[in-house]
């Protein structure tokens, strides 16, 4: 289900900007938080009676029965209410003080309820956080009132089947935090205490890491031995904390009382499906618990609960079922380390049970689980080939990644907001993942990965990382440079081309770097991924745990390599072999640059062209490849391509020949002089950094001048006629896209994807005219220039044309690559789609599929973007909230894409050149199940990285047909 965020236009224009201006800064909020920590009452004002009729009374003046009575608790300070109103931030909520709909907060992507969970976490890890002293403020919160409110809230929330389907994960996770029954949270307390001790006493850090990464009963002994060994050295505070830790761990790992489940099941209707299942479960395991059978049966029961939840009619019974599900999850989490498989078959069984339980807990959507269920089930065969076993590993690893992605998608925005004023919030997502079945699943997947790597003689070699199989190479290449670890999600980040970056999530406007690895992959066909693949920049995806392990090397010189088989090496530069050192000597000598071809440019065409006038041969002559290829597609698929207008190179050059204000000569003279000056500085032994700084400064002046450049009246008249002819309106009468289309794109060895500007869905006449100049200026931005500079020896000869096409308000859009990227199969297809317009190419966490030649499709990754854009008819972007309970692409859509790819492969070589056989990179979208084409270009990979002998050597040939008996001992 997709829920539109709607705003009145007047409110958006007038009020929203005013409110934004009135928001408190992060610095102001931080000061208030510190103030709350120091006050006996914290964020609370005083204790009051809150009466049923809406009135308030002093703490000594109870609400009379005749008006319905009331409840007593604290009220909020005025400046806390100010933060709520101005910043939509909620600290130290008293639930009994809160309206249910406001707490669910669907208009703001459920931010309020997520903040409540985040607050609970901060209070746990930071000695009460804003309630540091107020946690002892007697009467401020009444636990029985909070629990009663929680029950009422879930009775209100759970009546809607649609709400449960769309928000199952969030609802189920909230059950762990919102009071509605007497309960303990020993697991959370264990993680908090171990972190606190480790932060304050470094010798405990190894045990803390073990507790967080491999939680099991045996850790109690480690803490006891630590306490005994350091008895005389431990500060008194640490002694008390280790005592508490041992006590809590002992209680947490007490033997399971299976009868509790039977008692909890009694709230469900007698004879109902779930009650019968739960009673059968408790009967089977009442006397003895064989860990493997218990976990498998508990996983199946969790699966039944998720499947049957909306068939339960009573909301209180639904809540009881969710409580039983979370109890089962907790028990599986605790007992999973005790299941120690001895054979491959047993390990596959464990991975399946943990994967199913994780999906049943909501970390994977139900339709997503149905796509992979059969792939993870243990084969009835007694043996599998290495290729078949590798496929199971890939699918199992994906379940860990999808689960972590779900936590990031649901909580990421609010964590990022809180991190601006409270850095401790950054660890919330990591804590949530580590406390989930994804952690235990990840450990088991790691075991399988290590076994397969040994059998295949393949292994990652990433320094300091225990679980090498948690790392997966994406793009081949090698690099040498300083390692920079960026743990927080960032929209923009200033990078150096000589450094290796580890990102939680890479910025969409990433400039050239030596190498990257990311926790969040984004998708295989985003602009960033394609540019990295094109330039041979090594790129890998890693786990949340791995980024912590690698962080210790932040700031050090490291060697980094990714093979074309996905093998990853990351180690200190001092440990490089002679062969590895020679790579960079060769690279320095052999680095080649290419020239933008200018011999066919025709600058004589100085009027707009119709898209129908163009074909593939027009590329580099009148316009760039976007317009030329779209013109070609218009001829091939007239009903799938919109009409369009193209502003050719000649119009750009005609305007650049005008006199540039405050300079001698034209805009074009200033541009050519810029590159001439750069060449001269190099001959005079200026450093490349100095040359680049000078060039970028002149580029900035040029962009600013182009932004103010007068447009010729003759051009404006011609453009108006083109709009009337192609769009049946005047300029400003229909929303359009303005797409930069330069002659530097889609060269034989450089794609240029996404380097220059696209102006989205603009309708206003003046904004369209301004957009034209902005697009002309975009090749001279820092990012575009730096990417080009690596490859081009004549960057002054980059000419932009502009493709103008009417906006299609697609429901979902994405990219088709006519090649299997993940398996390197030329016959397969890779597609990545996001909801709304433009998401997949911008690097969103997209829904990706591998469509093979056997008429089947395998889900590579689900979409995990909480927001998407639609294109309203009045222009601009409309932000919408996404939920994930249904796939983006239907079977029909996938069939249409398969048919399109087949037509393109056959028709394009016939209508262009015989050697134009692909693979191709196609941008497309769907509206009302109709496929629309927006772009086609060559899919370019870096041949040097693919063919490097060194990269081959770190990923030797593997005999995929090698048979592995499932009875093989681990």
Polypeptide structure, described:
With 970 residues, the chain is of the alpha+beta class. Helix content is 45%, strand content 14%. The strands form 6 sheets. The chain has an 8-stranded mixed beta sheet with strand order 6-13-12-8-9-10-11-7. The protein has a 6-stranded antiparallel beta sheet with strand order 22-21-20-19-25-26. The chain has a 5-stranded antiparallel beta sheet with strand order 14-15-18-16-17. Strand 10 (515-518), helix 21 (527-535) and strand 11 form a beta-alpha-beta unit. Helix 10 runs antiparallel to helix 11. The longest helix has 34 residues, at 386-419. The two termini are 44 Å apart.
Write the layout of secondary structure elements.
Elements lengths: L2 E2 L4 H14 L3 H13 L5 E8 L4 E3 L11 E7 L1 H10 L12 H5 L6 H15 L17 H15 L3 H15 L10 H15 L4 H9 L5 H11 L6 H17 L6 H7 L7 H12 L6 H18 L6 H21 L8 H17 L5 H11 L6 E3 H34 L7 H8 L2 H20 L4 E2 L9 E4 L1 E10 L12 E5 L11 E4 L8 H9 L3 E3 L2 H7 L6 E6 L5 E5 L5 H13 L18 E2 L14 H12 L8 E3 L1 H8 L10 H17 L4 H20 L5 H15 L8 E7 L15 E5 L2 H13 L4 H8 L10 E7 L5 E6 L11 E7 L11 E5 L5 E5 L5 E4 L7 E4 L9 H21 L8 E8 L2 E9 L4 H5 L1 H5 L9 E3 L5
Parallel strand pairs: 6-13, 8-9, 9-10, 10-11
Antiparallel strand pairs: 1-24, 2-3, 2-4, 5-27, 7-11, 8-12, 12-13, 14-15, 15-18, 16-17, 16-18, 19-20, 19-25, 20-21, 21-22, 23-24, 25-26
Helix pairs in contact: 5-18, 8-9, 8-11, 10-11, 12-13, 13-14, 14-15, 14-16, 16-17, 16-18, 16-20, 18-19, 18-20, 26-27, 27-29
């Amino acid at each position: 289900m997709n829920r539109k965020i709607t705003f009145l236009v007047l409110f958006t224009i007038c009020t929203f900007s005013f409110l934004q201006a009135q928001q408190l800064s992060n610095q102001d909020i931080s000061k208030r938080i510190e103030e709350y920590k120091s006050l006996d009452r914290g964020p609370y004002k005083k204790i009051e009676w809150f009466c049923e009729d809406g009135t308030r009374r002093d703490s000594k003046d109870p609400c009379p029965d005749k008006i319905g009575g009331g409840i007593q608790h604290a009220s909020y300070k005025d400046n806390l209410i100010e933060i709520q109103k101005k910043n939509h931030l909620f600290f130290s909520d008293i639930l009994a003080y809160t309206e249910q709909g406001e707490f669910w907060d669907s208009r703001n992507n459920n931010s309020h309820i997520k903040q409540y969970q985040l607050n609970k976490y901060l209070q746990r890890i930071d000695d009460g956080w804003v309630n540091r002293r107020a946690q002892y403020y007697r009467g401020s919160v009444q636990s029985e009132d909070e629990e009663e409110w929680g029950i009422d809230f879930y009775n209100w929330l759970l009546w809607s089947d649609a709400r449960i389907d769309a928000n199952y994960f969030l609802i189920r996770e909230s059950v762990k935090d919102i009071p509605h029954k007497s309960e303990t949270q020993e697991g959370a307390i264990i993680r908090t205490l171990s972190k606190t001790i480790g932060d304050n006493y470094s010798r405990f850090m190894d045990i803390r890491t073990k507790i967080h990464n491999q939680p099991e009963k045996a850790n109690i002994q480690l803490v006891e031995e630590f306490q005994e060994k350091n008895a005389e050295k431990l500060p008194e505070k640490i002694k008390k904390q280790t005592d508490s830790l041992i006590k809590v761990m002992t209680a947490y790992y007490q033997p399971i009382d299976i009868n509790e489940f039977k008692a909890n099941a009694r709230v469900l209707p007698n004879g109902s499906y779930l009650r019968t299942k739960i009673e059968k479960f408790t009967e089977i395991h009442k006397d003895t618990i064989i860990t493997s059978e218990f976990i498998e049966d508990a996983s199946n029961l969790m699966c039944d609960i998720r499947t049957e939840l909306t068939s339960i009619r009573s909301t209180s019974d639904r809540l009881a079922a969710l409580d039983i599900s979370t109890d089962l999850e907790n028990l599986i989490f605790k007992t999973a380390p005790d299941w120690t498989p001895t054979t491959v078959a047993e390990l596959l069984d464990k991975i399946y049970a943990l994967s199913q339980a994780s999906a049943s807990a909501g970390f994977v959507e139900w339709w997503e689980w149905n796509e992979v269920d059969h792939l993870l089930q243990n084969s009835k065969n007694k043996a599998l080939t290495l290729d078949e076993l590798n496929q199971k590993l890939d699918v199992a690893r994906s379940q860990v990644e999808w689960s972590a992605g779900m936590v990031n998608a649901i909580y990421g925005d609010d964590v990022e907001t809180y991190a601006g004023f409270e850095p401790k919030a950054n660890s919330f997502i990591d804590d949530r993942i580590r406390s989930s079945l994804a952690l235990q699943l990840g450990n088991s997947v790691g075991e399988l990965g290590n076994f397969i790597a040994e059998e295949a003689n393949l292994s990652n070699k990433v320094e300091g990382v225990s679980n090498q199989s948690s790392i997966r190479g994406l793009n081949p290449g090698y690099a040498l440079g300083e390692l920079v670890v960026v743990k927080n999600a960032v929209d923009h980040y200033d990078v150096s081309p000589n450094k290796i970056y580890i990102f939680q999530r890479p910025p969409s406007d990433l400039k050239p770097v030596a190498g990257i690895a990311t926790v969040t992959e984004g998708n295989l066909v985003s602009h960033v991924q394609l540019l990295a693949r094109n330039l041979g920049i090594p790129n890998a995806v890693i786990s949340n745990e791995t980024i912590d392990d690698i962080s210790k090397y932040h700031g050090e010189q490291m060697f980094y390599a990714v093979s074309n088989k996905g093998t990853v090496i990351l180690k200190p530069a001092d440990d490089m072999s002679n062969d590895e050192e020679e790579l960079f000597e060769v690279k320095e000598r052999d680095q080649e640059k290419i020239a933008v071809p200018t011999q066919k440019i025709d600058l004589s065409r100085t009027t707009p062209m119709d898209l129908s006038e163009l074909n593939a041969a027009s590329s580099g002559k009148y316009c760039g490849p976007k317009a030329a290829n779209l013109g070609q597609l218009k001829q091939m698929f007239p009903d799938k391509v919109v009409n369009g207008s193209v502003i050719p190179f000649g119009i750009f050059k005609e305007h650049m020949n005008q006199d540039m204000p405050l300079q001698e000569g034209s805009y074009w003279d200033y541009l050519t002089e810029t590159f001439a000056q750069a060449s001269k500085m190099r001959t005079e032994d200026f450093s490349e950094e100095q040359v680049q700084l000078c060039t970028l400064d002149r580029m900035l002046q040029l962009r600013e001048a182009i932004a103010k450049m007068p447009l010729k009246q003759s051009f404006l008249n011609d453009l108006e006629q083109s709009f009337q002819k192609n769009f049946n309106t005047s300029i400003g009468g229909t929303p359009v896209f303005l797409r930069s289309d330069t002659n530097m794109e889609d060269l034989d060895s450089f794609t240029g994807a996404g380097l220059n500007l696209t102006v989205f869905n603009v309708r206003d006449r003046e904004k369209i005219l301004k957009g034209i100049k902005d697009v002309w200026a975009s090749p001279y931005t820092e990012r575009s220039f730096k990417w080009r500079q690596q490859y081009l020896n004549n960057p002054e000869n980059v000419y932009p044309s502009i493709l103008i096409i009417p906006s299609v308000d697609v429901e979902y859009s994405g990219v088709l690559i006519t090649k299997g990227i993940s398996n390197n199969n030329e016959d397969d297809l890779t597609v990545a789609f996001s909801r709304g317009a433009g998401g997949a190419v911008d690097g969103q966490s997209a829904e990706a599929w591998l469509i093979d030649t056997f008429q089947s499709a395998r889900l590579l990754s689900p979409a995990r973007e909480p927001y998407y854009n639609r294109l309203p008819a009045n222009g601009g972007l409309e932000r919408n909230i996404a939920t994930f309970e249904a796939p983006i692409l239907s079977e029909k859509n996938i069939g249409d894409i398969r048919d399109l790819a087949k037509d393109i492969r056959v028709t394009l070589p016939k209508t262009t050149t015989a050697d134009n056989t692909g693979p191709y990179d196609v941008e497309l979208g769907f509206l009302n199940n109709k496929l629309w084409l927006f772009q086609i270009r060559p899919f370019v990979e870096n041949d040097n990285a693919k063919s490097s002998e060194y990269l081959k050597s770190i990923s030797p040939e593997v005999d995929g047909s090698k048979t592995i008996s499932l009875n093989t001992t681990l």
